[in-house]
């Protein structure tokens, strides 16, 4: 799975079906569109985010360091219910985006300045619990 830049300049989900001898790529759009299907390498990128449809995740606890360097834990208020979880699909995941019920979001991962070990997320895999450097999330419905 990749994203390709459509003629309107936006990126959309696609898959590469052929690498041509002239260096161009033949793609298929995920939505079935038959227009603008021949792309140069510069117009193709790995799929960045996949939205996982778990709307019942609740941030259970946060363990972090305060300004003095002391570690502390706490249960966040209800406004921190997680509505969506986005991460890279089919690739090594090194960043996860949590979108909160109030529309705010937090990114955690290597490029967010915090360490985490990349893992592989398969397209059919169901997330039930995530732990990223002293932060734990789990579905309160157990799904």
Automatic annotation (TrEMBL):
The record's section on CDD domains has: Tudor_SF
Organism of origin is Cryptomonas curvata
Matching SUPFAM superfamilies, A to Z?
A: Mannose-binding lectins, Tudor/PWWP/MBT
Pfam families according to UniProt: Jacalin
Q: What is this protein called?
A: Jacalin-type lectin domain-containing protein
**What are the residue boundaries of the Jacalin-type lectin domain, all occurrences included?**
79-137
From which domain of life does this come?
Answer: Eukaryota
